[in-house]
Amino acid sequence: MTHRLGRYGLLVLLILALAGFSLARPTEFATWNNVKYTWDEQTPVIIGGLAIMIPLLTDSIDLSVAANISLANIVLAVLTENDGVATPLAVLITLLVTSFVGLVNGLISERLHVPSFVGTLGMATLLGGVGLAYSRSTDILTVPHSVTSMVRTDLLGLPLSVWYGIVSMIVVAFVLRYLPVGRKLRAVGANPRAAALTGIRPSLYRIVSFVLGGTLAGVAGIVLTGQLGSATASGSADTLLLPIFAAVFLGSTAFTPGRLNVLGLFVAALFLAFVSSGLVLLGAPLWASPLINGAALILAIALSSWALRLRARQFRAQQLKQLDSEDGEGTPETSAPPLSGSEPNGVRQVKQAATDPAS
User: Fold this and answer.
1) Distance (Å, rounded) from C-alpha 167 to C-alpha 222?
2) What are the mean pLDDT values of the chain's consecutive 10-residue runs (359 residues total)?
3) Which of 88, 263, 272, 286 lies most in the core, judged by the most C-beta atoms within 10 Å?
4) In total, how many domains does the chain have?
5) Does 345 reside within a domain?
């Protein structure tokens, strides 16, 4: 029962929140337009969460994601509105710019041996200056219709921005679960030393994780530009950093407690958004939303740490039980450790993580 509560507790909370606010404000909250608007508004947070989650899987952290999203917003707006670049080409250039930022983050962390926390924090400040310089400290109040239409147009009752978020989640989940690069990223985060012994280069895959995160930040910035229809020289997405981290870590408490997962991120982002919008409809003050996001981040990290400790205790208990069983049933021939061809336990775990699709 406790195991199921840990896996599905956040989903139950989301359902209860939707039901409670719907009963309290049926004509305002319980409408399709409210659901659609809230989901659409959270799409940059969801995609930004994916951008943060991939480096986190390799035991790195990217604090420059929100600044990179803001840079994508500025670059796309300047290229299309001020420079007259065709929208498809401008989108491609924007993705290349944010991916390059991710590459630089990875190189700073792995080649200069600067801790990713410090390096990406410095990069966030640096990107703020780059955005101001590139936009000449001037806000762009409008962007071409071709930019907004590729995000705001409805498809099957949902804005295209929502579909971009859905596709991004499906692609990331597929890569992490079924492709070798995704399984190797997980292996590096699980045990980098053992991963190196199996032929995986931890440094390379950490750099790859930053590049992938930068690309996803570019996607989030493109979506944000279409939603806003404008760009702020000082950064339109800087306030998204806390909600993104809150959604990522709160999502890690659901479905696979203690592990980052795409579905948990999605549910957590919607839960925080609907709770915030519901409280606003009930007349809560403006400080309620940041209070909820900050509290959720602290609680999520605490719960995630608790889940990891619980899993470690369960694993140790299973190992002790297996050893007791072997001591009781084995013979000297079967219980003796192999003299050749043996591998450290960590290497065997990483090999399994890198080859088993279900890991």
Assistant:
1) 15
2) 63 85 83 87 93 92 93 94 90 96 94 91 93 90 90 89 94 90 85 81 91 95 92 86 88 79 90 84 73 72 66 67 63 46 48 48
3) 272
4) 1
5) no
Q: Where do runs of H (alpha helix) occur along the chain?
A: 2-24, 32-57, 65-77, 87-110, 116-134, 145-152, 160-178, 180-190, 192-197, 202-228, 241-251, 262-281, 288-329, 332-335, 345-355
| Residue 341 within any structural domain of the chain | no
Give the range of the structural domain holding residue 298, as residue numbers without chain letter: 2-325
Prediction pTM value: 0.82
CATH number of the domain residue 28 falls in: 1.10.3470
Residue 131 lies in a domain: yes
Residue 327 to residues 318, 320, 321, 334, Cα–Cα distance (Å) = 14, 10, 10, 10
Backbone angles phi, psi at 263, to 5 degrees: -65, -40
Give me Rg for the CA atoms of the chain. 23
Contact 55, 209 (CB under 8 A): yes
